[in-house]
TrEMBL record:
<feature type="binding site">
    <location>
        <position position="122"/>
    </location>
    <ligand>
        <name>UDP-alpha-D-glucose</name>
    </ligand>
</feature>
<feature type="transmembrane region" description="Helical">
    <location>
        <begin position="533"/>
        <end position="564"/>
    </location>
</feature>
<keyword id="KW-0328">Glycosyltransferase</keyword>
<feature type="transmembrane region" description="Helical">
    <location>
        <begin position="65"/>
        <end position="85"/>
    </location>
</feature>
<feature type="transmembrane region" description="Helical">
    <location>
        <begin position="570"/>
        <end position="588"/>
    </location>
</feature>
<protein>
    <submittedName>
        <fullName>Cellulose synthase-like protein G1</fullName>
    </submittedName>
</protein>
<keyword id="KW-1133">Transmembrane helix</keyword>
<dbReference type="InterPro" id="IPR005150">
    <property type="entry name" value="Cellulose_synth"/>
</dbReference>
<feature type="transmembrane region" description="Helical">
    <location>
        <begin position="34"/>
        <end position="53"/>
    </location>
</feature>
<keyword id="KW-0961">Cell wall biogenesis/degradation</keyword>
<feature type="binding site">
    <location>
        <position position="278"/>
    </location>
    <ligand>
        <name>Mn(2+)</name>
    </ligand>
</feature>
<keyword id="KW-0472">Membrane</keyword>
<keyword id="KW-0812">Transmembrane</keyword>
<dbReference type="GO" id="GO:0012505">
    <property type="term" value="C:endomembrane system"/>
</dbReference>
<dbReference type="GO" id="GO:0071555">
    <property type="term" value="P:cell wall organization"/>
</dbReference>
<dbReference type="InterPro" id="IPR029044">
    <property type="entry name" value="Nucleotide-diphossugar_trans"/>
</dbReference>
<feature type="transmembrane region" description="Helical">
    <location>
        <begin position="693"/>
        <end position="715"/>
    </location>
</feature>
């Protein structure tokens, strides 16, 4: 497989594809791919030898049956998940874009931006409005851009705040365009993140900037005061759609001062009706936007993930407008980058393994997973298969619901280019928008089943992206030098584990459903791609393997029961090779992606902690749902920043406050390991065979060193 750039072209003449200048390049990471394949072979041989030793001794040797059975099961789980993970390493690619070769602004297609918020007490309103402002300020023609805010809390303060944000945007957007500001989130711009853009400017700029800063502080203060007075969520409410800014107001305004369409949507919510969480909100936005702006593409953003590079839309169009791939291209996924990750990053908030390794690997085999935010999606992909996007329009009312306006918009979307405009924003359109946002509209339709975002899983975007790949759609992963989107990661153990437990529960549920990647997926996509999705679905079973590995060897070490070959035995080399090989591979991937040895150590430690806590509880959550003890619920991650927690995080100290549920298995395992290690060492001193017990002693010591932060967290509690 030769290394090189695979160039794409864009151009249309009378409906025919024409060769043109390249819009993007794709290059295989050849050294990384070769090294990974060599390592796969080497590690697979060592793992096979290890399993052969285990199983043959278990079946034919005189070994303790119960302990050897448990340890064999755990090692088989490790081997199974490792095998699935190799698909990520088969063909990693890196992409770049050539924006200069895009068509003129008046030839670009429309883009709708969807931003979802649910609770102003957990998602600070000022932060949400900063995301809205950054989206409104994208470097894209204002008449081709529309921003929709879905307020699933129906909070009065959110409606008030978006109106205030719109007023501030009338000053903020022209300022950004005039001086070509890249950091177009005002909170970020006026912080240390925007320092580089405020250097070497004229006195005129300084004066104008100071004026903008005063206006922003006034806006921020008003919104924060309103949030202190009223920030409650209404769980029983009618639908409400309001146009906050209509593009007809751009008439006679110079281009730099023009603003995009801005719409507030609060869909209907009734306690007796299914809510469908974020998937329901996104499907409502699809319908409402269809009769208002009807852009063919949509950018989906979390409310705390602001636009950090205004050119992200044009970068995405370098792929969507390429006639060689556009017919089967569903979405362009950007990485989630976080501005508040500390240098030490003790909770692995940057998710390096995902965004710098796994996503690039999936990109080389027809497309990466959908991360839920920071992606540009072709709307037609949600309505059918490649080249069969209109298959549900044969019986539109049965499939899409009773709305002639929305069905007309779908026909237009499939027939000709439709640009954003305000001519459709009549009172009748707003009335119909409220109907489309009602909780009864989807009854007896295919919304959430075969159309739109799927309701089968609480991880709506990830699961919907998986279904798109099963239907034959492809996706692209773009990791530009300047992060296109920046968000806020969790800074304490509780929020990090709650978030992971939600993901684990949803993914494990998919793994055991009729949509399992290893049955449903493997028959509809490539083997390698189904292996990647299989990894995401089953990787949380590391929790079972880690739990067994955290109990069985330690107890056997305490009582002098050997589980590994003598250190002088040739078979011991297989175990040592697998252990060292795994660490070496991890270290190589960390260093080659810009990390350090400290990064590698932190990832090892937090992986162990998460495996026996959040992943374990995620698996138990699926079990409880299956037997009917628990029901599906959406756990909203708290995005409000606590100053005390922030100080601990920046100092590299673990904060276990509020994580009592997760701390129970973790604390028990750490204390068990400590007690067994001390008892086992005493046994070695008193005359046990060191050669037989060396493997267990080394393993116990390694886990003990990884557990130091947990022990440090337990000491103050014990002293109290």
């Amino acid at each position: 497989m030769a290394s090189g750039a695979l160039h794409a072209t864009y151009g249309f003449t009378a409906g025919r594809k024409m060769a043109g200048p390249p819009l993007h390049t794709c290059e295989i990471q050849q050294p990384r791919a070769i090294l990974s394949r060599v390592h796969m072979l080497f590690h697979a041989i060592a793992t096979s030898a290890l399993l052969y030793y285990r199983i043959s001794n278990l079946l034919h040797g005189s070994v303790p049956f119960v302990s050897w059975t448990f340890i064999t099961i755990s090692e088989m789980i490790f081997a199974f998940i490792w095998a699935l993970a190799q698909a990520f390493r088969w063909r990693p690619v890196v992409r770049t874009v050539v924006q200069e070769n895009l068509p003129r602004d008046d030839k670009l297609p429309g883009v709708d931006v969807f931003i979802c918020t649910a609770d102003p007490t957990k998602e600070p309103v000022v932060e949400v409005m900063n995301t809205v402002l950054s989206a409104m300020a994208l470097d894209y023609p204002a008449d081709k851009l529309a921003v929709y805010l879905s307020d699933d809390g129906g909070a009065a303060v959110t409606l008030y705040a978006i109106k205030e944000a719109c007023e501030f945007a009338k000053s903020w957007i022209p300022f950004c365009r005039k001086y070509e500001i890249k950091t177009r989130c005002p909170e970020a711009y006026f912080s240390s993140l925007g320092d580089a853009e405020r250097l070497l400017w004229s006195k005129e700029f300084k004066a104008e900037e100071e004026n903008i800063k005063v206006k922003y502080q006034f806006f921020k203060r008003n919104v924060e005061k309103a949030a202190e007075v009223e920030a409650s969520v209404r769980s029983d409410r009618p639908p409400y759609v309001e146009v906050i800014y209509d593009t007809k107001n751009n008439g006679g305004v110079e281009d730099k001062s023009k603003m995009p369409l801005l719409v507030y949507v609060s869909r209907e919510r009734r306690p007796s009706r299914p809510h469908r969480f974020k998937a329901g909100a996104l499907n409502s936005l699809l319908r409402v936007s269809g009769i208002m702006s009807n852009a063919p593409y949509v950018l989906v953003l979390d409310c705390d993930m602001y636009c950090n590079d205004p050119s992200s839309a044009k970068q995405a169009m370098c792929f969507h407008l390429d006639p060689n791939i556009s017919s089967s291209l569903s979405y362009i996924q950007y990485p989630q980058i976080f501005y508040n990750v500390s240098k030490n990053d003790i909770y692995d908030g940057q998710a390096r393994a995902a965004y710098k390794t796994k996503y690039q690997g999936m990109d080389g085999i027809n497309g990466t997973v959908c991360a839920g935010t920071g992606y540009y999606l072709k709307k037609k992909a949600l309505y059918g298969r490649p080249n069969h996007e209109d298959e549900f329009l044969d019986d539109p009312e049965k499939n899409f619901g009773l709305s002639s306006k929305f069905i007309t918009s779908l026909e237009a979307l499939n027939g000709k280019n439709v640009v954003n405009g305000s001519e459709n924003l009549s009172d009748a359109t707003l009335e119909e928008a409220n109907n489309l946002a009602s909780c009864t509209f989807e009854e007896n339709t295919k919304w959430g089943k075969e159309i739109g975002y799927s309701y089968e899983c609480l991880l709506e975007s990830t699961f919907t992206g998986y279904l798109l790949h099963c239907k034959g759609w492809k996706s692209v992963y773009l990791y530009p030098k300047r992060p296109c989107f920046l968000g806020c990661t969790t800074i304490d153990m509780k929020d990090a584990l709650v978030q992971l437990m939600k993901w684990a529960s949803g993914l494990v549920q998919v793994g055991f459903s009729r949509f399992s990647p290893l049955t449903y997926g493997v028959s509809r996509m490539s083997l390698l791609q189904s292996m990647c999705y299989g990894y995401f679905a089953f990787t949380h079973f590391f929790s079972i393997a880690c739990l067994l590995y955290g109990i069985v060897p330690q107890l056997c070490f305490l009582f002098g029961i050997p589980l590994y070959p003598k250190v002088t035995d040739l078979w011991f080399a297989a175990f040592a090779t697998v252990f060292v090989s795994s660490l070496a591979q991890h270290l190589y991937e960390v260093l080659s992606s810009g990390g350090s040895i400290r990064t590698c150590w932190n990832e090892q430690r937090i992986w162990m902690i998460k495996s026996v806590t959040a992943c374990l509880f995620g698996c138990l959550d699926v079990l409880m749902k299956w037997i009917g003890i628990a029901k599906a619920s959406f756990r909203l991650t708290n995005k409000a920043i606590d100053q005390e927690k922030l100080e601990k995080y920046e100092k590299g100290k673990f904060d276990f406050q509020g994580a009592k549920m997760f701390m129970v298995p973790l604390s028990l395992l750490v204390l068990l390991n400590l007690g067994c290690f001390i008892g086992g060492v005493k046994g070695l001193i008193s005359g046990r065979n060191i050669e037989e017990m060396f493997g267990q002693g080394a393993l116990s010591l390694y886990i003990l060193v990884l557990s130091v932060p947990i022990l440090e967290g337990l000491v103050p509690k014990m002293s109290k």
